[in-house]
């Protein structure tokens, strides 16, 4: 990647209306069987085209083949019973009915590897693939087998490592692990969360990223954000250890959040996906707003390490809004690119 400020999306993009209901999480599929398989592939192709038309440099599948960023991965594993459900508190924030771990968790077959190959075949651009992180996976399950969050996370880390190695072999350039749970369970993150994540990336030669955000723009998250006060310093608890870790890239929520940008200084040396697009609002940022966020970030990130991105996934947004936001991201990055070129 030689482009300065290569743009990317932090996660999911909205699905076409014919594939799933719009503007909601866990949206049920509208197609079935062979039609669903074909429909998911078409949606992936369409999502790629939309990213390319918006000028995005590091493209993804837009998570078009997944119903949810955590559960879809878990559905492909053994040891988890999706009919046996328990209500648990997710991210210490909201209650949800989740599946139960009833036995040893294993991955008997690849989960997203064919999808990644399908994407790879359609573009020469760098591609990024998102997987759930181990701590976020265990936070979305009820465990009736291991009796230890750490032990279960470690098992998942091994499984993620198998998947990640196959994704890399399929031509993925960046593997991103989504760990919103890192913003909540600070002690666990520092005790074993980052170690489990490093276990998931063991032996990889492609770039690795960790995405830590304040969540999708759903009500449970926006309500929670209201309780966090005027300054969100959660990143401060985990950045020192992340800085020491083997992860290459850290993906953060910055725009419109109350995260003091100077906290990014704590991960100096890492590549940083700077969230310059608010995913909790349907208002489309102006390129100038995006440029402002990037300029501020540049005080704490070396230019060659700055990757303009969205705060989080955009699955719950309308498609035209998401398209507009991606285009604004590209235009904002271009403003700062030009400024830097004339000042150097
Ligand atoms: Zn996120």
UniProtKB/TrEMBL annotation:
Residue ranges of every copy of the Cobalamin-independent methionine synthase MetE C-terminal/archaeal domain listed in the record: 5-330
Coiled coil regions, renumbered to chain: none
Metal-binding as UniProt keyword: yes
Keyword Zinc appears in the UniProt entry: yes
InterPro entries: Met_Synth_C/arc, Met_Synthase_cat, UROD/MetE-like_sf
Keyword set, alphabetical order: Metal-binding, Zinc
CDD domains: CIMS_C_terminal_like
Cofactor requirement: Zn(2+)
Pfam name, any one: Meth_synt_2
SUPFAM superfamilies: UROD/MetE-like
Protein name: Methionine synthase
């Amino acid at each position: 990647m030689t482009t300065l400020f290569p743009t990317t999306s932090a996660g999911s993009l909205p699905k076409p209306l014919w594939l799933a209901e719009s503007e909601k999480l866990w949206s049920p599929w509208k197609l079935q069987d062979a039609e669903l398989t074909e429909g998911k592939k078409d949606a992936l192709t369409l999502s790629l085209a939309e990213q390319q038309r918006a000028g995005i440099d590091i493209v993804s599948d837009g998570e078009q083949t997944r119903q949810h960023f955590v559960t879809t991965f878990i559905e492909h594993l053994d040891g988890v019973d999706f009919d046996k459900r328990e209500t648990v508190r997710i991210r210490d924030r909201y209650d949800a009915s989740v599946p139960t771990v009833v036995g040893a968790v294993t991955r008997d077959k690849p989960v997203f590897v064919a999808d990644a190959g399908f994407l790879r075949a359609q573009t020469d651009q760098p591609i990024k693939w998102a997987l759930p992180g181990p701590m976020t996976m265990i936070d979305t399950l009820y465990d009736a087998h291991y009796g230890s969050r750490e032990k279960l996370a470690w098992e998942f880390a091994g499984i993620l490592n198998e998947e990640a190695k196959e994704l890399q072999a399929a031509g993925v350039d960046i593997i991103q692990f989504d760990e919103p749970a890192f913003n909540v369970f600070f002690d666990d993150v520092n005790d074993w969360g980052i170690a489990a994540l490093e276990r998931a990336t063991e032996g990889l030669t492609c770039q690795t990223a960790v995405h830590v955000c304040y969540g999708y723009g759903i009500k449970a998250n926006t309500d929670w954000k209201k309780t966090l006060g005027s300054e969100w310093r959660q990143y401060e608890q985990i950045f020192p250890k992340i800085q020491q870790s083997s992860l290459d890239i850290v993906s953060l929520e910055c725009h419109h959040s109350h995260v003091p940008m100077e906290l990014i200084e704590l991960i100096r040396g890492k590549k940083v996906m700077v969230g310059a697009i608010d995913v909790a609002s349907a208002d489309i940022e102006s390129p100038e707003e995006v440029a402002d966020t990037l300029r501020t970030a540049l005080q704490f990130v070396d230019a060659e390490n700055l990757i303009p991105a969205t705060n989080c996934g955009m699955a719950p947004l309308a498609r035209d809004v998401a398209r507009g936001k991606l285009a604004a991201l590209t235009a904002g990055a271009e403003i700062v690119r030009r400024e830097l070129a004339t000042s150097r």
